[in-house]
Specification:
By secondary structure, the protein is of the alpha+beta class. 43% of the residues lie in helices and 21% in strands. The longest helix has 15 residues, at 29-43.
Length: 121
């Protein structure tokens, strides 16, 4: 038994965890939890968005970004903005909302330009 019981949690969750362990699927528990969290966030109208930039964004930039991204949301949706930095981007940013990704980084622009210049005329 997983040690999760009705006193501390839902018996359905305890049964699911026990079944996964019994069937040697314990390694998949974190994936199931992540999927459940995604479903629950969608149910609450939460829209996760990750923005990665070369350097940390200022409060002014973050506010402008929240405002711009907010225009794409439905009335009952709430933006959950997560930020990260990656110096390899050189400049610009990468915005990920759900399964959509927009790469506006300087590194990608340079890579595309190099590829275009390498093509024969």
């Amino acid at each position: 038994s997983s040690g999760i019981n009705a006193e501390y949690g839902d018996p359905l969750i305890s049964n699911m965890v026990d079944t996964m362990i019994d069937n040697k699927r314990a390694a998949n528990i974190s994936g199931v939890v992540a999927a459940f969290n995604t479903i629950m966030a969608a149910q609450r109208g939460e829209v996760p968005c990750k923005v990665t930039s070369a350097r940390p964004l200022s409060e002014d930039h973050l506010e402008a970004l929240r405002e711009a991204l907010g225009k794409f949301l439905k009335e009952n949706e709430k933006l959950l903005l997560e930020t990260a930095t990656d110096e390899a981007l050189i400049g610009g940013m990468v915005v990920e909302v759900g399964d959509k990704r927009v790469d506006m980084s300087t590194a990608t622009k340079i890579r595309k330009l190099k590829a275009a210049l390498a093509m024969p005329l």
